[in-house]
UniProtKB/TrEMBL annotation:
Organism in which the protein naturally occurs: Panicum miliaceum
InterPro entries in UniProt: UDP-glycosyltransf_plant (IPR050481)
Superkingdom field: Eukaryota
GO MF annotation list: UDP-glucosyltransferase activity
Taxon lineage: Eukaryota, Viridiplantae, Streptophyta, Embryophyta, Tracheophyta
Listed name of the protein: UDP-glycosyltransferase 91C1-like
Coiled-coil ranges per UniProt: none
């Protein structure tokens, strides 16, 4: 629940979604706000076109397994670059090894 607001702002910023208008006092929303957001995305041609195009771009990235494997490999490589000194189990940063 706590990450929904930041995720909504991120998706709106990337123009793949809209935030539903909320009550400023308590953060609640109503059916009118939801209906307004759905209409904007589904019925307004210009808005819909932007969202569809951006969603397709985002889908290409999310669905690219090779890209994610490369990211994971890079992460593992980076983690391994902080090697143990073999004595105390202490992690030694690369700059300390030089």
């Amino acid at each position: 629940m706590g990450d929904q607001g930041p995720n909504a702002r991120l998706m709106e910023g990337k123009k793949v979604g809209l935030q539903v208008a909320r009550n400023e006092d308590d953060g609640s929303f109503d059916r009118h706000g939801v209906a307004s957001a759905v209409r904007a995305v589904m019925l307004e041609e210009e808005t819909r076109g932007v969202f569809v195009a951006n969603a397709l771009k985002l889908q290409e990235i999310v669905a690219d397994k090779e890209l994610h494997e490369r990211y994971i490999d890079k992460l593992v490589e980076q983690l391994r670059s902080y090697t143990s000194d073999g004595i105390s189990g202490t992690v030694v940063p690369p700059e300390a090894e030089a």
